[in-house]
Design goal:
It is built from 6 helices and 12 strands. Helix content is about 40%, strand content about 20%. Strand 8 and strand 9 form a beta hairpin. By secondary structure, it is of the alpha+beta class.
Length: about 280
């Protein structure tokens, strides 16, 4: 089974379809700061979660040149007002070119706002993430979906999502029986799992049919496993072919021996016959 190939087919099948944005890629606009004095990330728990999650989404959407994945950089969403700025942990924008990389993201210049935003809760920003940012992202910025998640296992689990309805209202998403939330914008499921080694509650994306989106490490391990299985299968096939060749050679040798014996037998019969004819 070629799992990597199968995933590529599903990846194309489930990839969202969207129009290109009306603006153009903008690396930096003078007068809009692209960094501040705040440390990042808040903890190693958040750093691990953000890195893994970014890796998964970045690799999943890499087949589309018009999907941009942002990671803790500024989004300015009102031209001329540098106070209208947020810095989500992860955000996804459709319709804009993946490259070049931006120092900040300017919605009016790019002609697009993120379709989905993810925040991983920390003590410093948790209250804002749960309340204020819901309004900011979904109503002020025009984001379609907003998710929050608590990555620290030593704290109570929190995974919530909101979306903007067709009428413009904010609607909280309903989880499935396993606590997962489905992103209509990204056409992906999101569920969390506990990593006992790191004590991180990892938010993991998967395809609509439940197929997980692996990390780079997991994908490389999968490739090595499949390579090993292919090599084993090829070795077994080679051994079987060799056994078959040996068996066929033995059959051919046996047939040759029988033919030689039959010839000898015919020669003996002929000699006997000749001897009988020569007897007075």
């Amino acid at each position: 089974m070629d799992t990597v190939h199968d995933f590529t087919l599903k990846q194309k099948k489930y990839m969202p379809v969207f129009p290109k944005a009306s603006g153009k890629p903008t690396i930096y606009i003078e007068g809009y700061p692209c960094e501040d004095d705040e440390p990042m990330p808040a903890t190693e728990f958040h750093g691990l979660q953000i890195n893994i999650f970014f890796d998964q989404l970045f690799r999943y959407f890499r087949i589309n040149d018009y999907v941009h994945i942002g990671n803790d950089n500024f989004i300015y969403y009102e031209e001329g007002d540098i106070t209208k700025v947020v810095a989500p942990d992860i955000f996804v924008v459709f319709g804009v070119k993946k490259y070049p990389l931006r120092r900040s993201f300017y919605t009016w210049s790019e002609g697009a706002a993120p379709v989905a935003v993810f925040e991983f809760l920390s003590d410093a920003t948790a209250d804002q993430d749960r309340h204020e940012k819901v309004e900011v992202y979904l109503q002020e910025m025009g984001v379609q979906e907003f998710f929050i998640h608590q990555p620290e296992m030593d704290k109570p689990a929190e995974f919530f999502g909101w979306r903007r309805s067709a009428s413009g209202n904010i609607v909280e998403m309903e989880p499935d029986a396993e606590g997962g939330l489905f992103s209509e914008a990204l056409n992906l499921w999101f569920r969390w799992e506990e990593d006992q080694t790191t004590r991180v509650r990892l938010l993991r994306p998967s395809l609509p049919d439940g197929t997980p989106i692996n990390t780079s490490v997991e994908e490389e391990r999968l490739r090595l496993q499949e390579k090993h299985l292919r090599e084993e299968a090829e070795a077994m096939a080679a051994e079987e072919a060799e056994r078959r060749q040996k068996a066929e050679a033995m059959v051919a040798e046996e047939a040759e021996r029988r033919r030689e014996l039959e010839i000898e037998l015919e020669q003996l019969r002929a000699q006997l016959a000749n001897g009988q004819n020569e007897t007075p």
